[in-house]
UniProtKB/TrEMBL annotation:
Protein name: Mycothione reductase
Gene source species: Catenulispora pinistramenti
Pfam families named in the record: Pyr_redox_2 (PF07992), Pyr_redox_dim (PF02852)
The FAD/NAD(P)-binding domain, residue ranges: 4-322
One Gene Ontology molecular-function label: mycothione reductase [NAD(P)H] activity
Amino acid sequence: MRHFDLIVIGSGSGDAVISGRPRDWKAALVDDAAVGFGGTCLNVGCIPSKMFVYTADLAEAAGEAGAFGLDLPTPAVRWQDIRKRVFDRIDRHSADGLRHRRSGGPDLTLFEGRARFTGPKTLLVAGGETISADRFVIAAGSRPIVPEVPGLPDAGFLTNETVMRVDQLPERLIILGAGAIAAEFAHVFSALGVRITVIARSGGMLTREDGDVSRLFTDIARRKWDLRERREATRVERDGAVVRVHLTGPGGDEVVEGDELLVAVGRRSNADRLDLPAAGVAVHSDGRIAVDSRQRTNVPGIFALGDVSSRYQLKHVANHEARVVAHNLKHPDQPIEADHRFVPHAVFTSPQIASVGLTEQEARTDGVPYVVGKRDYAGIAYGWAMNDPEGFAKILADPQTGRLLGAHIIGPQASALIQPLIQAMSLGQDAATVARGQYWIHPAMSELVENALLDIPPRTG
Ligand SMILES: Cc1cc2nc3c(=O)[nH]c(=O)nc-3n(C[C@H](O)[C@H](O)[C@H](O)COP(=O)(O)OP(=O)(O)OC[C@H]3O[C@@H](n4cnc5c(N)ncnc54)[C@H](O)[C@@H]3O)c2cc1C
Ligand SMILES: NC(=O)c1ccc[n+]([C@@H]2O[C@H](COP(=O)([O-])OP(=O)(O)OC[C@H]3O[C@@H](n4cnc5c(N)ncnc54)[C@H](O)[C@@H]3O)[C@@H](O)[C@H]2O)c1
């Protein structure tokens, strides 16, 4: 049996652990390239989706240029070229990564294909070989959840793994789900001229965001798309080129029709495909591998990171956890802990959304005292320049100390604007210090954040 110092399962964020291993270790990387070498973010997630979002933002801006006195023609959409720009780059990067790892040198072996545990420290890889190691890092990611709706498998459907590579733009796209993937792809495809129907189980879209943000986004979505709220899909059928989704909701039964159906109802950990009981690795009730603050599983020497174990399915979290694991492998006597205190996220839809920390509803439910500062883009000079009528920044702070508890922005460049607030929370700065302790460039968009901070009532402590 070939034995290694370290085996990493997963070429997404796990690849960084391979790069950061001690130089004298004999290591193996195992990956089935189910979505392409390099994992989800590179091949079917963050990166290509944001490249499409940028194109969609341009198309949308062209459509809105009339309000600025510019009468531009409706953009002619060359889908094949849009797709080519994205995947020429993505596929080259993935292929380069694979080539690099295939020629990894004497100390690195790449095993291509799906692996599963056969014992506490033994792994069965493709081709029937069993390999073993002193240490394992499980970075096996997650996959789309496919809900059990009668007729769905036969009707055929898209997921984030396939929707970006369709050969033709559909005229009508139905999206099942109303979360991050739904919001981003509804924007992408509607900006390119596709008619969108979104099927939401609850009364709104992005309902985990702060209530004010979710309500505004839902209002905007209702204006742009056919948003069916409080609906359950009961059956799916395909009739030639048409896909029909049967729904039940407050108004009774109804049917929506489209050319394609995108399923975006969440993602589940790939832990169930690893035969973890053979290794004795414990999982949570939702299937994620259980880890402690040092990213250790219950089995000594086996670590896990990223979507396979994290309650945050976000690439910056997976990267952070990979750094923690790499450190703890190298320095077992000086271990560090993962910092999940202030995990931000952004939804790259239109308008953009970004968030960190407590939402107002969470603060209320948890009984956390708070005050709010809130300012509109419409109230800052750059907001006038952009004609933004609805977006805002909202900040929650501790009334006594002025420390930030949460921040939520909906509007242009929200994902970049929020960074000083993430920094303030991470470094424990209070609102007045952040607002008054530095210059804010005039008349930049960042004045939105400055003004929201200044809107927070003076601290009482
Ligand atoms: C459409 C979409 C957009 C997203 N956008 C963003 C965004 O804008 N920002 C953000 O922060 N996050 C975003 N995410 C989330 C982000 O992509 C994930 O959190 C991140 O990629 C997870 O990385 P990972 O290393 O845990 O898993 P992955 O990158 O999925 O890597 C896991 C690897 O392990 C392999 N594997 C699994 N099981 C086995 C096995 N048994 N044997 C061998 N190999 C195996 C898989 O094939 C895969 O290559 C997005 C996700 C999606 C789907
Ligand atoms: N910009 C980003 O950071 C980004 C973008 C896309 C995806 N992601 C990551 O990928 C993950 C998965 O995205 P997602 O949009 O699939 O999940 P999500 O959890 O964001 O949203 C899932 C949606 O599906 C609905 N839903 C759940 N089960 C359903 C069912 N059986 N029938 C109908 N609707 C159902 C939920 O109510 C919700 O609206 C996200 O949690 C996020 O972490 C991140």
